[in-house]
Amino acid sequence: MLSELDGSAIPTDIPCGIILVLCLAALSAHFVFKRYETYNIAIHAGLLFLPPAGCAVLFLNQYRPIDAILISFGTYLSVLVSSILMYRISPFHPLAQYPGPLLNKLSKFRLACVAGSGRQYLYIQKLHERYGDIVRIGPNEVSIRDVSAILPLMGTKGYRRVLVYWIGRNISPNVNYLVAISDQREHARRRKPWIRAFSPAALKGYEEITVKRVAQLVNALASKSDDPDLGKWFSYFTFDVMNDLAYGGGSEMMRDGDTGGSGTCTSLTAHSSSVISLHKFPGSVKEMDKLRTIKRIRDGSLAHDVFYYLNNEDGVESSPPSLDALICDGNLVIIAGADTTSSVLTNLFFCLLTNRDAYDRLQSEVDTHYPPGEDALDTKYHADMPFLNAVINETLRLYPATPDGSQRIAEKGSGGRMIGPYFLPENTSASVHFYSVHRDPRNFSPFTNSFWPDRWLIAAGEDTCAHQITRKNCVGKNLALQELRMVVCLAMQKLDMRLSPGWDPKSYEEDEVFWNEDPKALQDSEWAKLSSDFTNRRLTAGKESALQQGFDEGFADVDGHELGQEDLLREARDIVSQLSNVRFSDIAPPDLEAQRHAREHLESVMEDDNEGMDFEVPEEVAEKRKMEKLEDMIAQMGAGSGGVERQQQDRVWPTPFLAQAAIGCKGATYAVFLCMSPVTLIFTTASAEDVHDG
């Protein structure tokens, strides 16, 4: 007997012929689905239920109906599932050559669980750190961390989007959202009104709408007696703005909150409709969107908003679009424009408020162009504010609007194609994981995981993965940038913002890596390690300002101890003796201009030494001469360096490398490293290999 069920026995003499038929049927179903791979529900149901149901009928002559069903469906589904799983991990699978976790190769269930936690982008980043630039994150899907794959995958001749994730969003079987249209001609036709709607002339016309809402946002924040939740208020702001542009109004979330639940409904549609089509339920979002669209058509244009162009009210097209197309387009305006812009604003102010130096620099730039009395909502100075744009770029680098990228698929019949150095077989999907690409030291260095806007000032004009534009690039990005700049300029002109007392910034992003590479934290960390080693005389407290003051003025006072040049020099020598294992490039890379001056100075020093050396100098004399050079440099330093900009450099032989590192540091780190430069040959015996090994 196989088992007992309700007191009756299931016989073991199951006909082998029928079992063989079930096995062959299951294998055939797997082959058919793999061959044609359709998303038609009727075909899915037929492949899953018809073969075992037919075989169950053959068992009825020998078994009870329940036994026949259990045997037939159990055998069929077991063989079908086993066949699928074995194929997915077999060497015959098209993606077998690419590494990844076993569970991910078998099913996307694990990834679905991770996505539910909101940490999918971090999970995939960890997979890339473990497996490399290409990782198999699903049975038929890979994630790529390689900039060379961006244009082949997403460029003008790239692959189309994976449409299965938009099936649940479609409100009509005949009309798709613009981003879900795979046919190139149809996509180009539907995109024309969007291009007109986000042209520079059109954006100028939207300024009046945006200005009103930005002023409302800043006034609302200023009126709050308690600590406002910026994320919530930015969501309210963008939802109100996009409703003004899409439907001519109808949303007052900044005034009333989400009392009607429209914001929640729209967000639910954007995030869960790829699982189940909410539009098919009575009284769903589709009905709400339909009513708003009909009302907007009936009322006509009060202003040249986005809907004015989408509905062909400018008369450019030969005929107006269908109602279903307008419903899709209006909903897409809100879905694409509200959540993304609000998240960027939230991330931007988080970065500024946790990096006070950057906040103060941006405040200074805003005050320069928009002093009190100047209209901070006038866009005329935006192009002349490099640090503002650097802050926006750096925020988008650390927190991409779409961190997991946009999934693309190699179309069936294409035979597959090379995506950079990787071959993507047909009917498999791939995406560039922007979060990992943006935090890859090969692409952005130094301070890869830190907020450092200066990298965009140093590399101005360079084309990076965040700025590569494709034919299907987001047409609304200029509107989003306009909103970002307006909000930042007015908020920083009118408000003085601080983090709430007691709020832990680490709670915003739990990824500890983000905090471990902060430039100032690195300096403090290295000094803390050295402090216990090089002094027991209570000279560690305030060492940075004290040493800088000492080098600037020839004396310093630390914890009641007055230090002259000799004390400072002794302190510097003690520090130098402890620095053999410190990776200077991680503490503070140098400014290029300062690096050039350092090299010129060292070269001139060496030339002077060589001219006066006609004989072999004893080692102790050479050391004394070099120490005298150090003392001369201390006396000549004058007012010090002030702040310098950081810039990445390659590691070279010890003496030039330490000279470069010296100029790029601040405070005591700057002073001590500068002192080290001419005496490197005394205090270090590291070879080039030692320096490279860090």
TrEMBL record:
Residue intervals passing through the bilayer: 12-33, 39-61, 68-87
Keyword line: Heme, Iron, Membrane, Metal-binding, Monooxygenase, Oxidoreductase, Transmembrane, Transmembrane helix
Highest taxon above the source species: Eukaryota
The protein's annotated pathway: Secondary metabolite biosynthesis
Residues reported in the UniProt entry to bind heme: C474
Keyword Coiled coil on entry: no
Any one GO molecular function term: iron ion binding
Similarity field: Belongs to the cytochrome P450 family.
Protein name according to UniProt: Cytochrome P450 67
Source organism: Grifola frondosa
